[in-house]
């Protein structure tokens, strides 16, 4: 059942199922999950270990396809795409912020932020200009040419946030974004992520087990054993 009219929905997930086969055993990582997320929402996906959070993130982020069910992202049906089409929509529509930062260690902050634009075929000068502006926007204007090893954990995550927003994606997926940070840096990063929603209207989806993070979302989708629970 669709929960709301699709005209303002950036995500429509209908009866999503993901089954992994391990020999003769079938593991139902997702078992018929349905929800909608509207443009401009901040939503937390929560649940205990093994609940299906990571599988859901991979599907919503176009890193994997469901075994069955419908997934529509910003008006495009994702469920039927091939690998190349999936990579294309992922680069255009999704910005990722990971717990482990996922920065290229031998590249500067500027080069890391440029990367999604390289895949999108954007000219070099425009890439530099936009990446520079994004790093200034997250408070790293004086760290453009520093490599990840020369930055603190909080600064590395700021680079990741700048990279996530660089292509103006339909959604930003944040997977345990404060998990590797100290408390002060964690608060700063959450403030930064939420400011993208306040200032730009960006749709934010946060995958977390931390109730303190969940409390900062406008809505929580809870998963247990691959099913959505109220």
Automatic annotation (TrEMBL):
The keyword Lipoprotein does not apply. One of its GO terms (cellular component) is membrane protein complex. Residues 11-229 form the ABC transporter domain. It comes from the Bacteria. InterPro entries: AAA+_ATPase (IPR003593), ABC_transporter-like_ATP-bd (IPR003439), ABC_transporter-like_CS (IPR017871), MacB-like_ATP-bd (IPR017911), P-loop_NTPase (IPR027417). The keyword Nucleotide-binding applies. Pfam families: ABC_tran. SMART domains: AAA. This is Macrolide ABC transporter ATP-binding protein. It comes from Ornatilinea apprima.
């Amino acid at each position: 059942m669709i929960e709301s009219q699709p005209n303002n929905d950036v995500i429509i997930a209908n009866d999503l199922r993901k089954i992994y086969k391990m020999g003769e055993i079938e593991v139902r990582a997702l078992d018929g999950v349905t929800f909608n997320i509207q443009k401009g929402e901040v939503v937390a996906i929560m649940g205990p270990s093994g609940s299906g959070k990571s599988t859901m993130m991979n599907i919503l982020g176009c890193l994997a396809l469901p075994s069955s069910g419908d997934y529509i992202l910003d008006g495009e049906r994702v469920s039927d795409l091939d690998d190349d089409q999936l990579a294309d929509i992922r680069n255009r529509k999704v910005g990722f912020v990971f717990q482990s930062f996922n920065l290229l260690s031998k590249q500067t902050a500027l080069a890391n932020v440029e990367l999604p634009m390289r895949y999108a075929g954007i000219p070099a000068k425009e890439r530099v200009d936009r990446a520079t502006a994004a790093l200034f926007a997250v408070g790293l204007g004086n760290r453009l040419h520093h490599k990840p090893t020369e930055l603190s954990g909080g600064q590395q995550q700021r680079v990741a946030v700048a990279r996530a927003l660089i292509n103006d994606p339909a959604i930003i997926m944040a997977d345990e974004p404060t998990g590797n940070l100290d408390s002060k840096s964690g608060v700063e990063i959450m403030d930064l992520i939420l400011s993208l929603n306040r200032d730009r209207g960006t749709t934010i989806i946060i995958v977390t087990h931390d109730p303190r993070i969940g409390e900062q979302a406008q809505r929580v989708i809870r998963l247990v054993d691959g099913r959505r629970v109220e």
